[in-house]
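Module 6 notes. Inverse folding takes a fixed backbone as the condition and produces residue identities as the prediction. Think of it as a translation problem where the source language is geometry and the target language is the twenty amino acids. Below is one complete input and output pair. Work through it position by position during the lab.
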């Protein structure tokens, strides 16, 4: 179903108007072949007699099946599973002192964008909630051409040089002899790679942290990872790191929960983004930059060209310069999300590269991969990829060429076409490469300044809160526990020893390995608080609350609390014993959204059990109701109960002392009072209650 969301006058013009020319609605139309011929019949092939053979002459059958046979294109070799949305970007203040990029100059201008979020390792049909890095790729359709910021939700990467990317990906993907395991790093080849390539140490700390289990694409950060360059009108450069900071804060799921969601709703993150946009609660991310003047390249004490290093925010503050808002879902997944082609080399004047050897190799890979994936060199003409800036050059022909270039001249320089199209000087927006002085011998070597593989891994570990540390240890125990080769396990433990001795010993203990031979690290690095999710923004907005209720539910509580929670931006939904409507104790009909069969605690952020004798009796008679509460409890989620609803908490059993635990808000008496509503909102905003004993 395609709603007409395109003509909102507030939306930035160019890209939407351009896409409009390609949108097709079939309402009220006749069925045709691809040649426009109207078809009288679409259910029976043309046969010689009703029971006779099908005729080759049946052009409609042939065309329909041939098209179907070719409906799929190769999935992306990495980031195959993704989900996209449209939106716009606005800068808060002119960045003219640092960059000439036009879309970063005028706070009144809205630049259209398309964003694709993705998992990295799994195939297109894998589950959303696997432990993995998430891609965060943004295409800005600027007046000066497309600018692509192709980042991840982690600020560093596994390797320092692009030549190792095929090896990394071969190690992480399912093993080639049996294509197992899907969408998981928990296997021998990945950890063998890590043990042999200790430059991965910092990134695997991020990958084993809760960052790789995002609660929502709306609640994760994005990073450009590499050091890029801003260049201003005077030709002065600043090294720059790019950040996306979600206005809802950074929040994650619990490992056990992610595995269950993978079965209950494999599209969990995609559905979440789609629903948020459809309901008008548009995801927002602030755009931040860390900048270092060109002449301070060596001021941080590590090499800023090394993509396994981040710039601690405490050392180089993030300057927030704008905001991205995602406000429109796609009309067609294939045409938009599948065919979108990103490339870190798609830049605009004022943004340039550095000599980060990982970035340099990426600059080759992305166009190259589209040639196979999209099937030719004209993918830039596909609507979702098409620039809003006019395209004029002498490139011609190739598979699926759309443009009808006129005239005999397709070369430069020419006199026959008056020299057109002619290169633009920098004053007219021509891209001028930053005139960096480069000198050196041709060598296959890495600078000694890239050899420190551990200090920032230690920094990350030291910056984690106690629950985050516990989760990291469990993640390593899980992953290495799945590794069959004992030498590989031991090698990783020894590597962890170089990050932190206590970390390595705890991991070793859980997997039957020896404590590390040497340990290093921990005392030398002070924590960097910005790395811990414990210090993120807390908000109850958009959190889903399962309201457990049945016929006879306490109307006063439902009315008071649900309204208050909606006003706080939360999303309460009724879960009951059957679908349809329930009648409250005031005989009000209330629509039920889910049953205990169609819903599960893992799909909600919080649970509330409303009072009402008859309602609570029905819940007590349904074993899945107490299970629902228990599951929420062990995943540290906020739980609320009023009146008789508290009896369901007691029914969770003495082994599960729900009542009185942190994040459990109950009210026995005047259930409709404000106090309960507010306390529950606070508990929901805290997201998870890690100090709970489960
Ligand atoms: Fe990559 C896709 C992010 C290193 C080669 N990459 C891809 C996507 C993201 C990233 C978000 C999905 C884009 C989309 O949604 O279509 N990649 C990164 C980051 C990296 C990185 C943040 C390190 C900082 N990538 C990297 C290297 C190479 C590649 C070093 C190769 C030398 N990446 C690719 C690719 C993909 C890709 C094979 C697969 C599909 C595509 O490009 O369009 O070319």
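Target side of the pair, the amino acids:
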């Amino acid at each position: 179903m395609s709603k007409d969301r395109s003509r909102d006058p507030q939306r930035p013009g160019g890209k939407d108007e351009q896409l409009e020319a390609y949108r097709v609605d079939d309402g009220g139309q006749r069925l045709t072949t691809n040649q426009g011929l109207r078809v009288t019949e679409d259910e029976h092939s043309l046969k010689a007699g009703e029971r006779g053979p099908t005729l080759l002459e049946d052009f409609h059958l042939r065309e329909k099946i041939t098209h179907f046979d070719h409906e799929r294109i190769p999935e992306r070799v990495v980031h195959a599973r993704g989900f996209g949305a449209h939106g716009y970007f606005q800068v808060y203040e002119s960045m003219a002192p640092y960059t000439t990029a036009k879309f970063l100059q005028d706070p009144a201008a809205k630049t259209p964008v398309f964003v694709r979020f993705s998992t990295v390792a799994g195939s297109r049909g894998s589950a959303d909630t696997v432990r993995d890095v998430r891609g965060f790729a943004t295409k800005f359709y600027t007046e000066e051409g497309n600018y692509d910021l192709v980042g991840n939700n982690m600020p560093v990467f596994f390797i320092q040089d692009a030549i190792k990317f095929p090896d990394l990906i071969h190690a992480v993907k399912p093993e080639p002899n049996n294509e197992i395991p899907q969408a998981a790093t928990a296997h021998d080849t990945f950890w063998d790679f890590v043990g042999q390539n200790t430059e991965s140490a910092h990134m695997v700390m991020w990958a084993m942290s809760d960052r790789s289990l995002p609660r929502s694409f709306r609640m994760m950060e994005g990073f450009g990872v590499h050091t890029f360059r801003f260049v201003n009108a005077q030709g002065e450069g600043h090294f720059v790191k790019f950040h996306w900071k979600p206005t809802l804060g950074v929040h994650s799921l619990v490992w056990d929960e992610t595995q269950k969601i993978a079965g209950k709703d494999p599209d969990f993150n995609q559905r979440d983004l789609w629903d948020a946009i459809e309901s008008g609660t548009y995801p927002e991310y602030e755009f931040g930059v860390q900048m270092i003047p060109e002449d301070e390249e060596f001021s941080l004490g590590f090499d800023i060209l090394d993509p396994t290093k981040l710039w601690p925010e405490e050392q180089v503050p993030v300057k927030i310069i704008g905001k991205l808002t995602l406000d429109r879902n796609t009309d067609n997944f294939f045409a938009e999300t599948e065919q979108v082609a990103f490339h870190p080399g798609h830049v605009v004047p004022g943004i340039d590269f550095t000599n980060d050897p990982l970035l340099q190799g990426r600059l080759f890979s992305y166009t190259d991969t589209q040639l196979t994936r999209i099937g030719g060199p004209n993918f830039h003409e596909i609507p979702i990829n098409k620039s809003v800036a006019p395209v004029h050059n002498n490139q011609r022909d190739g598979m699926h060429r759309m443009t009808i270039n006129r005239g005999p001249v397709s070369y430069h320089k020419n006199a026959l076409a008056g020299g057109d199209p002619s290169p633009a000087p920098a004053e007219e927006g021509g891209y001028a490469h930053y005139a960096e002085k480069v000198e050196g011998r041709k060598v296959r070597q890495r600078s000694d300044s890239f050899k420190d593989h551990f200090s920032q891994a230690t920094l990350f570990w030291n910056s984690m809160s106690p629950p985050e540390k516990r989760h990291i240890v469990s993640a390593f125990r899980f992953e290495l526990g799945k590794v069959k080769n004992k030498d590989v396990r031991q090698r990783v433990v020894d590597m962890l020893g170089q990050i932190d001795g206590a970390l390595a010993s705890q991991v070793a203990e859980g997997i039957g390995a020896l404590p590390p031979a040497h340990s290093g690290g921990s005392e030398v690095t002070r924590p960097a608080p910005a790395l811990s999710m414990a210090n993120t923004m807390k908000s109850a907005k958009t959190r889903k609350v399962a309201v457990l209720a049945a016929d006879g539910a306490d109307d006063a509580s439902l009315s008071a609390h649900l309204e208050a929670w909606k006003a706080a931006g939360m999303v309460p939904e009724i879960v009951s014993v059957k679908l349809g409507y329930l009648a409250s104790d005031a005989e009000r009909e209330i629509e039920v959204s889910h049953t205990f069969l169609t819903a599960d605690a893992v799909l909600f952020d919080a649970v509330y059990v409303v009072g009402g004798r008859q309602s609570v009796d029905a819940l007590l008679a349904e074993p899945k109701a107490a299970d629902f509460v228990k599951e929420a409890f062990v995943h540290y989620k906020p739980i609320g109960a009023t009146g008789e609803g508290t009896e369901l908490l007691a029914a969770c059993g003495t082994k599960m002392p729900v009542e009185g635990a942190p994040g459990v808000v109950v009210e026995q008496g005047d259930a409709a009072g404000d106090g309960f509503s507010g306390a529950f909102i606070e508990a929901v905003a805290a997201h998870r209650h890690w100090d709970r004993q489960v």
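Reference fact for the lab report: The chain has 18 helices and 18 strands.
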